[in-house]
Design brief:
alpha/beta; 8 strands
Amino acid sequence: MLATLARRRARHTGVASTCLHPIMIRNLLLALLATLLAGCASTPPTPAVATSPATIATPALPPLRIGLALGGGAAKGFAHIGVIKMLEANGIKPVIVTGTSAGSVVGALYASGMDAYALQERAVALDEAQIRDVSLFSGGLIKGQKLEDYVNAQVGNRPIERLPIPFAAVATRLEDGQPTVFRRGNVGQAVRASSAVPGVFEPVTIGRWHYVDGGVVSPVPVDAARELGADFVIAVDIGSKATSGDASPSNLLGNVNQSIRIMGQRLAAAELKRADVVIRPAVNDIGPADFSQKQRAILEGERALQAALPQIRDRLAAVLTARAQRARAAAQAQQASAATTVAECTPHRSWTTFWRSVCSKTE
């Protein structure tokens, strides 16, 4: 090959040459070397070093996003305030809140920036007349406009997307039974739709659709909390439980209510399986409109959360450990991939050494 290059040079310059100058030989060899090493970096890679998995540090992980899913239950919903109160007292801060029916009322106020004590003050001061507007000639006994106005006043008339804590209210689309998760728009209207118990409240019209209580499809909105990005969900179930004393073959209204309770229990049980921890305050005997029991409901919420604290801490620790293990495994896999790439370039480093030695001899 070198002889061929020499002849071409001779034809081009008109000067015959039977040998190549050492500098020219060196330049030609360096050009060939560059071609051989085109697939690797110009600087020889650092040799692969076997690393024990135990020496790989756990990558920095984002904070665990705790979600709070507050279920429906009318006046029983005051228990949610007690749960939030004890969560805060123990340094557990939800960063995502979802609510159905009564849970959407408490959840919206909490997401607006109120702490548990502010919520309790509002609860104590709340008069039933502030949120009840009777309408006898429509699809329900209560319009719900007062509830909407009350909630909007409490949150400073901000839309959902401007609340400090990500929040969603769950309602049921009446036309087809689809669950609807309100994540944007009018807070009070979303809460009103989520709380529109069929036969008690008028359905709420939003756009071309009508909405009723979210408890029809999602009594405790665990899935909505996951959709908002929660890594760990604490669910609060305050729904009425069906008991044998509620059934009576001769009581038509009682049988209807019992059937609704059974359906609600079935729906809630399926979704609650997807929560990390479920809190169940002992409020089953509080009536749906019994506002006189609000203080007791708050206290039961505190007791239920306090009893569940060991479980919450254990589950949090397990989830954090699992996240760290997954992160370390991913880091190990990435390191192994990098080591394989380095090993593939090792033969080229030996060629580099050879050609450098050849070039040095021609100088």
